[in-house]
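Forwarding these from the shared drive since the link keeps breaking.
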Amino acid sequence: MIKKLGILGGMGPAASAEFLVRLIQQTPVERDQDHIPTILWSDPTVPDRSISMRNGDDKPLPQLIQGIRGLKAMGCDLIVIPCNTAHFWFHEFSKINVQIVHIVDSVANTIEDVLGEVNDHNSKIGILGTQATIELGLYQYKLNKLGWNCITPPQEEMDSLVQPAINLIKAQRGPEAYSQLMTVIDSLIDRGASAVVLGCTEIPLVVRESMHQNIPLISSIDSLVQYTIKQFKRN
């Protein structure tokens, strides 16, 4: 039986806090004792994941490993990481004897819930994320294997709209980022996206699923929350 949930956070701090808030809001409860016991390890000093991935170094890895081991030592037997780019080191995390949810698996689960299982290879899923997430194919690799056809913003939109918007959110200037992100979402819809994944946990702080009437917006934060709740119910 799972006893405690560990959250490896601080990347960024607001996204980690938002994950915890949404976990509390979305867990079916009638009393305090029905909530999931949780420990948040928030370390904002972890080196920038996107920069390291694009440079081909592993500077964030020692602190990520330290956080996972720390959570395990405190009795956490399920760990989630509300940071997409940190999952590029998932193969290293999996060497530690503790269950860790992969955020892309949780998003894939939500896509299937929302759109149904893949019946053909014509459905297009738009992907938003950091430069590194898009360039290194974090979502494309897993979703393509499941039969989804992923489309991403062109480099010009990544450079001028998406990455600057993510940087604004991290600088606590989220309202300034909203119109930039919605412009890119509309562009992905125009190219045939049946759903758009908000594949950076900063983006759902500004763009909510209910903000677009035409297609589902799949939040990586909410997907991770729902997947986590299912894991606890299962155990």
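-- next protein --
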Amino acid sequence: MARRDIVVVGASAGGVETLRQLVQTLPAGLPAAVFVTVHFPPQGASGRPRILSRCGALPAIHAAHGDAIVNGRIYVAPPDHHLLVHRDYIALARGPRENGNRPAVDPMFRSAAVAFGERVIGIVLSGMLDDGTAGALAIKRAGGVAIAQDPRDALFPSMPQCAIERARVDHVLPVSKIGAAVFQFVTEEMSTDAAGRSRTRAHRP
């Protein structure tokens, strides 16, 4: 049976601290690959992989063009590049800015939805404006699961609030509970009913 094993996470203002809290709750050996895009100035030197590796059990690295996708690893979009998730590899692109940013959340979310469909879990965290909303909607339309941080729990509530209102995400949770929800989804098996609609079935060893 297929599983949800692609986790895409988008954040902006207030997102680094929120990401620290999230990755602290993800266990070593998570049977999924995690992709992270946080808005960042193009000239900046991002130390986010190092920060995330220190505060959680999963190793984090800057994504490189052509990387294979490995479960139990966090891939972070480097400055000035969109992170795109393809079926067999990761791509970096210096395409047009989206929502005023490169890297932007929506390109990563959309690419994951196209490549992996119902296997995707999309998470929108703290940030300003609405990046991630269109991507969350694409994930839902492809059969995946969309989660937004509870705006009351976010340092900057606009991004998750927009995703809640416009994409009608499946779950709204404080960041302290998102990791547990991700673990539940990636350890469930997905089956398909007679009409072709996906559904989940709890995995029992």
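The chain has one domain: 2-202. The chain has six helices and twelve strands.

- D.
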